[in-house]
């Protein structure tokens, strides 16, 4: 059923491009609410409790994906025994289920739209409006940032979340199908909820953070490879992106965000990192790339490169799913 899976991935990607995230009733938001309720039961200040929390929630979502896949396969198999082949109805069912799951887990269109809106507000001098928008992109303290700081924060978020919001879910969708799509989004959502190094989650969130690191190892490098290859789309040089990736990615505290941000910095010809202000305090991040600090035009270029990477990933994922037959 590789053809149906490939078609479903492309259709789901197309739905995300046209519709973006639903304003109400988003399944990922529903999962987050359920995870908060489960946390009231599972929370203990220990790694073991965090492992239980991760296994219960990711396992439930993965089981849902497996159940959906089996339901479609069972229907195709029953009809196939009568007709000697997989039926059109069975293939159509897989397309629909895969497309719906893909649209549910992708967030690249909303990411790019928010990046462009941030650039619009900064260009018009609406600093307060830009500060109000920043929390939808990242966890920086917007009140501490000027226009250039807001542009840098948004650009770094675009770089990292291109991988998290599009490349990684499509990668796992191509490799595992619907269970991979749903499991990845559950893993990434739990990391965003509890994967912090603060007093409450230092131990409880350890499993969520480490699982997210493992799930993103391959996708982040695919994202870096595509960012490097597609650098000419925004006037960059692949050699500069590759050099920044190889030289600077390892400096970043995240094994995956460093790849995405360093390759983007090299492609844009800017320097990312440095003093970074969060609500919980100040971090001195290593510098990535060469060149000036990013400004608003660089944010627009980053959005264009992000969209190019997303399209290339969708095509590659569909090809991989087709060959997975």
From TrEMBL:
Pfam families cross-referenced by the UniProt entry: CobD_Cbib
Give UniProt keywords alphabetically: Cell membrane, Cobalamin biosynthesis, Membrane, Transmembrane, Transmembrane helix
Q: Which domain of life is it from?
A: Bacteria
Known pathway: Cofactor biosynthesis; adenosylcobalamin biosynthesis
- What is the topology of this protein in the membrane according to its UniProt annotation? Multi-pass membrane protein
Q: What is its main location?
A: membrane
Q: Where is the protein found, in the record's own terms?
A: Cell membrane
Q: Does the keyword DNA-binding apply?
A: no
Q: What is this protein for, i.e. what is its function?
A: Converts cobyric acid to cobinamide by the addition of aminopropanol on the F carboxylic group.
Q: Which family does it belong to?
A: Belongs to the CobD/CbiB family.
The identity of this protein, by name, is: Cobalamin biosynthesis protein CobD
Recorded name of the encoding gene: cobD
